[in-house]
């Protein structure tokens, strides 16, 4: 560790990884061969709108620690774009009138408002497929490619993200225990964040202990992200958040803040942050970027 | 060809392949590990309700011709279940209020009526993922598995089935040319039927000329299926069809019958039937089952 160059800068890393994944998304959504222009416009709108690109950043960051500056980030582009496609599809469908019925996302009209509801449903459907197609065009050797596909599929489906969304919808006007709330978040947002880290680790050539450590790291920051979301939901106003303040509270959805109170929710956030940093300790290489990413998640203001 | 045993019987083949795929679907949807019971109930309801199981039958039938009675049909179960999952997901989403707004499908309430709209959207989403998961658990060797995944993905997404559905929705109250109508159907229903045949062919070990012949066969029966659907839509009553008679005509959607008239639509159907049979002529093995399947598609009454 003594020979490390200067600490990586999170902001420039996030900017670079965003640019990489946006370039790949733009490429894949602009390939010819479609007869459905409006559908692809809606896919573009949803996948390439403003966003933190946190999941793609995790793919790159978790791969890079095994290689340092020599790592060829291009090897991660398809995986990074794939996790962003799944994320974008889930947001389109979550925002639909039959689901959370949100008109605003990141300060812009949601997909079904900017286009129409049918088009939004289909754009979400096609972005899910596009995620798998991206991995299939990846240049990784067949067994690695299948591992990446497996990670993405098990995180996304009825035993992953979609299950979380189903539990979330059923929780309106119900009281969940802290354990049930945690299960919901581990599925709804945690599973894809976990898969992003694991896909990066696999691309970087992690052994099983390293894969396990990055999994623990990702599980902790995934949950921390959600706790911070719940805190921001009641402490930050609409203009900063890009969505109505108190939206979850208004829907009478259980949150960490409603179950624990604001102070204990902040305590929970600190605990998860420590867990994430602990998980990094067994890893070789320069993990400072991953530490900064964990710091960013608990400190972010929107 | 002179030593062939008695002609395969289509009805018993369809029954057997339906049973195989239903068993595989039931298994995969019953595996433990989900915390979202209602979601899986809706997935079961949609994927295992009454249906022709035409796409799975094509997978089995196209694989079998290269092996005859010695073929181990179990090798096709995951692919057969995967194409049925994609088909079931597409029907759930097609039936939604924002899309075709159908309350009845195969004589039963559609998924969003039997459950609710949010649950139906998610069940469709999760069935799409389940299709890819099924192929990933397949026992085929890695390169074949990747080929199967590629066939499924390119047939399903924004350059396949979903594009077809998008064009279909945009066609309401518009006049399409025959060419545009054909493009729509080749994407909306044709692409998955084509992929089913190609996946069967790949599982059976087809060479590239054989794969090409089965592709031509599937393209012809896929379009024939749709022409027959349009004919049935105006000639058969609701009780037999399991959906309201004249539904497409009421929605003012262009059909083969509205564009060509009933007689010319029937002529078109006969032409496609011939094309399918011609494509089979270059194939080795016993293609009588595929011939019977083509006959069934143009003669079916619901």
Describe this structure in words.
The structure is a homodimer of 302-residue chains. Chain A is mainly α and 302 residues long. The first copy, chain A, has one domain (7-299): Orthogonal Bundle (Farnesyl Diphosphate Synthase). Chain A is 70% helix and 1% strand. Chain A contains 15 helices and two strands. Chain A has a two-stranded antiparallel sheet with strand order 1-2. In chain A, helix 1 (10-30) packs antiparallel against helix 2 (37-47). The two termini of chain A are 33 Å apart. At the A-B interface, helix 2, helix 6, helix 7 and helix 8 of A face helix 2, helix 6, helix 7 and helix 8 of B.
Secondary structure topology:
2 copies of one chain form a homodimer.
Chain A: H1 10-30, H2 37-47, H3 54-64, H4 77-95, E1 104-105, E2 108-109, H5 111-114, H6 117-136, H7 142-156, H8 161-170, H9 178-204, H10 208-235, H11 238-241, H12 247-250, H13 256-260, H14 262-280, H15 288-299
Antiparallel strand pairs in A: 1-2
Helix pairs in contact in A: 1-2, 1-3, 1-4, 2-6, 3-4, 3-9, 4-6, 4-9, 7-9, 8-9, 9-10, 10-14, 10-15, 14-15
């Amino acid at each position: 560790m003594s020979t490390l160059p200067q600490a990586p800068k999170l902001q420039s890393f996030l900017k670079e990884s965003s640019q990489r994944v946006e370039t790949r998304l733009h490429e894949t959504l602009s390939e010819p061969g479609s007869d459905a222009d409006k559908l692809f416009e809606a896919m573009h709108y949803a996948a390439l709108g403003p966003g933190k690109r946190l999941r793609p950043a995790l793919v790159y960051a978790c791969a890079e620690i095994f290689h340092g500056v020599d790592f060829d980030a291009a090897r991660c582009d398809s995986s990074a774009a794939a996790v962003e496609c799944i994320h974008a599809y889930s947001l389109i469908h979550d925002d639909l009138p039959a689901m959370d019925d949100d008109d605003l996302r990141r300060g812009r009209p949601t997909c079904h408002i900017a286009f129409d509801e049918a088009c939004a449903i289909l754009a979400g459907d096609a972005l899910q497929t596009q995620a798998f197609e991206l991995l299939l065009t990846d240049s990784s050797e067949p067994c690695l490619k299948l591992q990446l596909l497996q990670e993405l599929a098990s995180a996304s489906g009825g035993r992953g993200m979609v299950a979380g969304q189903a539990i979330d919808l059923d929780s309106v006007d119900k009281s969940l225990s802290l354990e049930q709330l945690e299960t919901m978040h581990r599925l709804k947002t945690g599973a894809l964040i976990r898969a992003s880290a694991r896909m990066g680790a696999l691309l970087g050539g992690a052994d099983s202990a390293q894969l396990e450590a990055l999994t623990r790291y990702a599980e902790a920051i995934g949950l921390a992200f959600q706790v911070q979301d719940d805190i921001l939901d009641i402490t930050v106003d609409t203009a900063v958040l890009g969505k109505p303040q108190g939206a979850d509270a208004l829907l009478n959805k259980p949150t960490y803040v409603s179950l624990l109170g604001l102070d204990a929710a902040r305590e929970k956030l600190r605990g998860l942050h420590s867990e994430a940093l602990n998980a990094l300790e067994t890893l070789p290489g320069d993990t400072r970027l991953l530490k900064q990413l964990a710091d960013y998640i608990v400190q972010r203001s929107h």
